[in-house]
């Protein structure tokens, strides 16, 4: 099992980059889709959960836009807190 919060770290490293671009968005999308597939998760539920972890609601701007605006550190912090709250270790 991976260290707690590793999903948060992986996602925030891509989306919270100071040099955010479509290339980062594609890389983040590929990472996310691979992770969802490997774990057998439901894509829609995953993205809704991620949005709730970041902004507290299931509605809002595109997730990658949210993460770019929040930045790497804040995105990572919010996702790590959410992982800790649900007891997910990666």
SSE arrangement:
Blueprint: H1 6-15, H2 22-39, H3 43-55, H4 63-86
Count of helical segments? 4
Q: Strand content of the residues, in percent?
A: under 5%
Distance between the termini: 7 Å
Task: Give the rounded overall mean pLDDT.
Answer: 78
The tally of beta strands, per DSSP, is 0
> Number of folding domains?
1
Radius of gyration, Cα only, in angstroms? 12 Å
Q: Element order, helices and strands? A: HHHH
* CATH architect. name: Orthogonal Bundle
Most strands sheet: none
The computed structural class is mainly alpha
Q: Tell me the overall shape.
A: globular
CATH class: Mainly Alpha
Short overview:
With 90 residues, this protein is mainly alpha-helical. The chain has helices spanning 6-15, 22-39, 43-55, 63-86. Residues 1-5 have low confidence and may be disordered.
Give your account of this protein's structure.
This protein is mainly α. It has one domain (6-86): Arc Repressor Mutant, subunit A, CATH 1.10.10.350. It is 72% helix and 0% strand. It is globular, with a radius of gyration of 12 Å. The termini are close together.
Feature tags:
90 residues; 4 helices
């Amino acid at each position: 099992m991976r260290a707690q919060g590793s999903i948060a770290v992986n996602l925030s490293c891509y989306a919270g980059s100071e040099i955010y671009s479509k290339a980062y968005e594609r890389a983040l999308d590929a990472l996310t889709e691979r992770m969802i597939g490997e774990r057998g998760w439901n894509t829609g539920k995953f993205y809704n959960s991620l949005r709730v972890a970041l902004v507290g609601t299931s509605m809002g701007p595109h997730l990658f836009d949210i993460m770019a605006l929040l930045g790497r550190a804040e995105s990572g912090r919010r996702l790590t807190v959410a992982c800790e709250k649900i007891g997910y270790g990666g």
